[in-house]
Amino acid sequence: xxxxxxxxxxxxxxxxxxxxxxxxxxxxxxxxxxxxxxxxxxxxxxxxxxxxxxxxxxxxxxxxxxxxxxxxxxxxxxxxxxxxxxxxxxxxxxxxxxxxxxxxxxxxxx
Amino acid sequence: xxxxxxxxxxxxxxxxxxxxxxxxxxxxxxxxxxxxxxxxxxxxxxxxxxxxxxxxxxxxxxxxxxxxxxxxxxxxxxxxxxxxxxxxxxxxxxxxxxxxxxxxxxxxxxx
Lengths: 110, 111
Known about the structure:
The complex is a heterodimer.
Chain A: E1 4-6, E2 11-14, E3 19-25, E4 32-38, E5 45-51, E6 54-58, E7 61-66, E8 71-76, E9 85-92, E10 99-100, E11 104-109
Parallel strand pairs in A: 2-11
Antiparallel strand pairs in A: 1-3, 3-8, 4-5, 4-9, 6-7, 7-8, 9-10, 9-11
Chain B: E1 4-7, E2 10-13, E3 19-25, E4 31-38, E5 42-49, E6 56-57, E7 64-68, E8 74-78, E9 87-94, E10 101-102, E11 106-110
Parallel strand pairs in B: 2-11
Antiparallel strand pairs in B: 1-3, 3-8, 4-5, 4-9, 5-6, 7-8, 9-10, 9-11
């Protein structure tokens, strides 16, 4: 079983839709939770970071962590064509070793 | 401020050849990382360096060696390349556990 599971999609939504992206994990020691966005042929860039459980909001993006269910989510409100990318979740128990999901490919159609 | 730079951008090797991937950061970060990204596998950690002078194995270290030359530079060496090492390689750096900054990647093909 992989440490982090993420549905690869692809996911296709109309502009303005709310997008929900999810990851599940098996290691209860994970404390650091991150979401990255990766455009084609580019390096990942950090979108959201959460330590332990709870919600965090930044503009159109909201990250949620439910440690009891070992489940994290990223919500994108009012999605834009520029949000079209691959979204990667990442987790770490210590802040040194990071475990990534395989990524979900998102396309926002104008 | 260039952030994280990687060289080369592309490389084609024959099986058994050796090469070194170079990475440098200008953000004064303590920690640096090497990942490989393969379709359906996501990003997997090869090696990391929590500080200058230290290196540790990640999830997939076999076939690779690293050198933390100084605080700025962290290189990845393939001593005898194999087709299974065909991948996109990313270097990253971070000051704290929460934020990793990635380079643009090196696309390596081993024939």
